Amino acid sequence: MNIFMQKIILIFTIGIFLFFIQRSFANDKITEAKLNFHKGQELLAAGDHEGAIDCLRQAVKLFPDSAKFHHRLALAYMEQGTVYSRLRANLEFKETLSLNRDNCDYRFDYAMLLLQMKMTTSAVQQLKRIIKIDPGYYLAYYHLGLLKEKDVMRYRYMIDPEEGGIIYFYEFAKEDKEKAVYYYNKVISLKPDFPDVYYHLGMLYYEYNELFHMIDLLEKAVKIIPSDKNCHLFLGFAYYHDEQYELAEREFEEAMKYM
Questions:
Q1: Residues 6+ apart with CB under 8 A from 235
Q2: Which of 40, 178, 233, 258 lies at a CB distance of 3.0 to 4.6 Å from 56, suitable for a disulfide?
């Protein structure tokens, strides 16, 4: 074997050796990152947010390409509930989504943070983005409905006196009400056993004195979720205001059974 071939073999051997050393080192870093991640989870469960965040930050530092690690760190910051921690959570969520844009759970949690930060327009954008990615993600529709319901209650009785007249906001409220009803009905079509949507949609109908729609909705609800006390309670409330007193009493008694 000539000297040239010996050099080639030597270089090749060294390259393989360095490759395995590098891979072993990388595997060690990932293993350490996972240990820090799990330790952070344990500390969060124990209520030690500071300790958990330290561990999760170390996990992210060791394995910065993990969307899962960034996401959990974002949630830990979010759970702290301070202005500073929410800003840190915002940065971590952005990093999370840069690594995994189509994960609807990550994007939904980010939308919830944005709502906490009073960044409603940005939160709505995230919720609508979720629906585009996954049209069956019922929680996105539900929270869009909640936001529209909030707008309904804000505009319904708003009066703005101006020079030469008074501006009423009934039409704005009506448009938002129709959108809220659409979103809530979408939730029911996707997740019929989700009780909260019946409470909100039912009371929205009540706000507009649409007792027929409220009763029809809640009669379906108690069939789908017969053990839910609040569905019986709201149905009894609807019957009472519709002057169907015997039916109202029956539903109040049913509600009491599950209280």
A1: 215, 218, 219, 221, 222, 251
A2: 40
CB count, 10 Å around CB of 241? 14
What are the tokens at 159?
């009066």
Cβ contact 202:238 at 8 Å: yes
Paired with 168 in beta bridges are 159
**Residue 225 has what DSSP assignment?**
S
| Single-letter amino acid, residue 15 | G
159 forms beta bridges with 168
26-47 pLDDT per residue, tens: 456 778 888 888 888 888 888 8
What pLDDT, in 10s, does the model give residues 136-177? Answer: 999 999 999 999 999 888 876 665 555 444 455 666 778 899
Q: What distance in Å separates the CA atoms of residue 177 and residue 208, rounded to the nearest whole number?
A: 9
R_g of the chain, CA atoms, integer Å = 28
Enter the pTM of the model. 0.82
Residue written as tokens 């071939």? 5
Model confidence at 24, pLDDT cuts 50, 70, 90, reads very low
Q: Can you list the alpha helix ranges (DSSP code H) found in the chain?
A: 3-45, 49-62, 67-80, 83-99, 104-116, 120-133, 138-155, 170-190, 195-207, 211-224, 229-241, 245-257
